[in-house]
């Protein structure tokens, strides 16, 4: 996997974690679940080599 794709996938994971934490702090379940979804998508892409 190229370094560019790895960086994009890792960025998606970090953004997802930030959304999740913000959602938890504000009580916004939609934002929290969106963050979890972004984190999972980034992990799947990274593991599959996309």
From TrEMBL:
Record-annotated CsbD-like domain positions: 7-49
Region (Disordered): 1-50
Domain of life: Bacteria
Xref: SUPFAM superfamilies: Hypothetical protein YjbJ
Record field: compositional bias (Basic and acidic residues): 29-50
Any one Pfam family match given in the protein's UniProt record, by short name: CsbD
Family: Belongs to the UPF0337 (CsbD) family.
Listed name of the protein: CsbD family protein
């Amino acid at each position: 996997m190229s370094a560019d794709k790895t960086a994009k996938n890792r960025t998606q994971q970090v953004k997802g974690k930030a959304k999740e934490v913000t959602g938890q702090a504000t009580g916004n379940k939609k934002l929290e679940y969106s963050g979890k979804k972004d984190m999972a998508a980034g992990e799947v892409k990274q593991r599959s080599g996309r």
